[in-house]
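dumping the sequnces here before i forget
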Amino acid sequence: MTGPKPPEGGANPQGATRGLRADARRNRARILAAAEEVFAEKGPSASTEEVAARAGLAIGTVFKHFPTKQDLLGAIMKDLLARLSEEVDALASDGDPATALFTFVSQTVEQAARKKTVIGLLTESGVDVRVADAVRLLHEGIEGLLSRAQQAGAVRGDARPDEVLALLTAACQGALHAGWDPDLQHRTLAIVFDGLRPR
Amino acid sequence: MTGPKPPEGGANPQGATRGLRADARRNRARILAAAEEVFAEKGPSASTEEVAARAGLAIGTVFKHFPTKQDLLGAIMKDLLARLSEEVDALASDGDPATALFTFVSQTVEQAARKKTVIGLLTESGVDVRVADAVRLLHEGIEGLLSRAQQAGAVRGDARPDEVLALLTAACQGALHAGWDPDLQHRTLAIVFDGLRPR
DNA sequence: AGATAAGATGAGTCTCAACTCACTTTCAGC
DNA sequence: GCTGAAAGTGAGTTGAGACTCATCTTATCT
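..and the predicted 3d for all of it:
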């Protein structure tokens, strides 16, 4: 009846990395980092093999941590959405309520132009159950930014959070196209922002 | 030196169907129709095999007409863009200049929600050289609608055609998401249209 | 240090879909 | 209706990529 400590049963606040052996935790992080890079460059159709190579690990290790490719994509997606939520929180506490929402949208679209991950994910598989929570969190964050902006008189009172989210995802999608450059992005978002302002 | 009439050398206004044997022309049309259906339902990742089945033809026939899958997707894309250009022309001659542009965008986005073809194509492969002409034609059409709307005072004078096209494609992309329903679509486009109106 | 289970490995399997081609069928001109 | 070329056929080839597993390695506990 002697042996290693059994896996800890408690709740794990961020990810399922508690109770993992040290090397496993390290490798999991490496995989996620590599995957984010690879998928950002080549989109979600990049092979798991390439992710493994970039992480300097064997393909089997990747599949041990993420049994299917969808799981891997879902984990990245979750990370990305969580980071967006953090940005929202930061802007909500520090930024000017009148411009925080616009700043957030601009930043996110900017980022989308570089990282195809989110975009391709949303397009290919729709919003997955695995990331539903993360999406809800982001939605709530946007709700906060929106209502502050409305109270500051910077955004029309009848705009709703789901409209903002729709505009945001649409703009992110659009950011992938040929001919989309910083200038066009700026001009296009300016139109959208004008549409959001009070008449 | 006797034999069947050699293929006609003249220009072919719509598609490369002139000089084809009757059955070939018929089958080519069947393939395009089937492909449009299949890709609209399942997106561009649907198999060529399924297209052949839907058309009631052998797989080899499909590949005889369209040597690669990209060719097939390109042909559909071209068709679709041509149809959009036709709609633009119709609205340009018949419609109210003040609302024609908005009507066109609404219709197109509406259609995108049902047919994933264009969207997935643009996302997966970028704008292909094969359809560059068709895109240019659509661009010119939008340019016309835009300048009429501006002359009618319905759209701000500083809006440019590429901004409109960016907004249009972005909205079409957005239309694929879970949670995108006619109501949300209407409200979101209303914001965009407000952004396009003179202040 | 020794024991042991967790973790890592990567060659191999399996599935799926794009594409080929030797052969058959059909159309069109005589 | 005969003939030759154009078109159609579909089993087979090929390649790519997701996923497996028998085996080896290593962290961690005593």
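Chain A has a mean pLDDT of 86.
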